Amino acid sequence: MPAIVPVATLKPPCVARAWLSSPHPDLPIVATATTNTLRIYSLTSFTLLSTVTGGHKRSVRSCAWKPGSKEVPVIASGGFDATVGIWSQDQDDKEDWRFAIVLEGHDSEVKSVAWSAGGNLLATCSRDKSVWIWEEVGEDDFETVAVLKEHEGDVKCVAWHPEEELLASASYDDDIRLWREEVDDWGCVSILRGHISTVWAVEWEPMQGMRDNQTGGPRLASCSDDGTIRVWKKKEGQEHRQQQSPLSIIRSTGGEEWEEDSQLPKWHSRAIYSVAWSKASHRVASVGADGKIIVYEEYAESADDQRASNPVNDHQLGNQMQNGADGPGVVEETDRGGIDTSKSTVTEKSEPRTWHWQVVAEYECAHGVSEINHVAWSTAKVDGSWQEVIISSGDDGEVKIWKVS
Fold first, then answer.
1. Which end of the chain has fewer beta carbons closer than 10 Å to its terminal beta carbon, N or C?
2. Strands annotated E in 37-164
3. CB 151 within 8 A of CB 129
């Protein structure tokens, strides 16, 4: 069975709580939100490269790298001072970061910031119960395109769909809302209900590694104060259609139908603060108030597997075959525990597979007695080679690197 193995602790640690760590999508660096600064660390030496100061008057709660900003890295930060900062790396001195612009509008602390896949839109959310969407219209120039106030509580997290301009938000009101632009106005197109307490975070499934024949596009994972992780999917047979009539002041909540696809095994004993979905292994990691890091894996079970464990089904299958029904095909498991359809001889009438989640690794007291605020997947140079790693950020001010082996 896989195990979570400590690799390194980033040095020096933060002097106060580490709220969140955001790995750059293309470069071997990670930014950590803490006190009133951003700290940029190397994922090769695991040491501090830069301390970004001067933009926020209070602690930085969240940060996110702009997609495509490899040559000139750009990062957004959200703070307890209710402002959003945009920073870019100084190309003459890589250790310096230029404070490009401050975005103001929220009435209370900014809890989360997220860039759209194209990098032209920035979403922010706040304790003031609102979600703002900003559009970059020029160099160091942003304008507000939407202020969304349908949530009835503190908005904890925002996350963009990996390909579409579809935004998910999670809130203290126990709801998840999905937002799209319809007829030149942004509105809520679906409300995902099922959690019975604060939804702390949402994370979209990566496009890479989606299960075979998956309809509706990538799924959405959510974690909550109720101790559950739920996976949501768009109902089959739906295609997004732009509304033909202008939206009323009361925005529609029936534009898209989403449903709960599954729940991951309930392994945490307290609130779950963060969930992350790996692009490489397609595993899910979670952390929370109990100080644990949990790693989950999805696997497929075919109808043949189910019948093998159920003699009654075998008998029923025999009767079906005598009546001319198609028999089972031959399948092989992949190294991830799923089914390799490339070697399958299942006929077109073969029965569908059932998907399940299982816990594959657990690490207790990962940050001592401290709660863990955030988890992310990335790659780092470990023992001379690039490997997939987990990055955890804790109340103890430490950011730790782990691998699953």
1. N
2. 37-42, 48-52, 60-65, 74-79, 83-89, 97-104, 110-115, 121-126, 131-138, 141-148, 155-160
3. yes
Residue 301 main-chain phi, psi, to 5 deg: -120, 120
How many CB atoms sit inside 10 A of residue 11's CB? 12
Question: If DSSP codes are grouped into helix, strand and coil, which group holds residue 77?
Answer: strand
CB 275 within 8 A of CB 264: no
Tell me the backbone φ, ψ of residue 72, rounded to 5 degrees: -125, 90
CB atoms within 10 A of CB 294: 25
pLDDT at 322 over 80: no
- pLDDT computed for residue 304 by the predictor: 63
In 172-277, the DSSP E strands lie at 176-182, 185-192, 199-204, 220-224, 229-234, 258-263, 272-277
- What is the pLDDT, as a whole number, of residue 308? 52
Give the contacts of 316 (CB within 8 A, at least 6 positions apart): none
pLDDT grade, residue 326 (50/70/90)? very low
Report pTM: 0.85
CA 185-190-191 angle, 5° bins = 125
Question: Which residues have C-beta within 8 Å of that of residue 242, sequence separation ≥ 6?
Answer: 182, 183
Write the CA distances from 194 to 17, 152, 190, 222, 265, integer angstroms: 31, 16, 13, 10, 16
- Tell me if the bond preceding 12 is cis, omega within 30° of 0: yes
Residue 258 has pLDDT above 50, yes or no: yes
Please report, for the chain, how many H helices and E strands are present, in that order.
2, 30
DSSP state at residue 342: G
Q: State the Cα torsion 169-159-238-338 to the nearest 10°.
A: -120
CA distances to 139, 218, 331 from 258, in Å: 37, 12, 31
pLDDT tens sequence across 137-146: 988 899 999 9
Per-residue pLDDT at 351? 58
Query: Tokens in use for 30?
Result: 């990670």
Query: Is-contact 193 175, C-beta < 8 A?
Result: yes
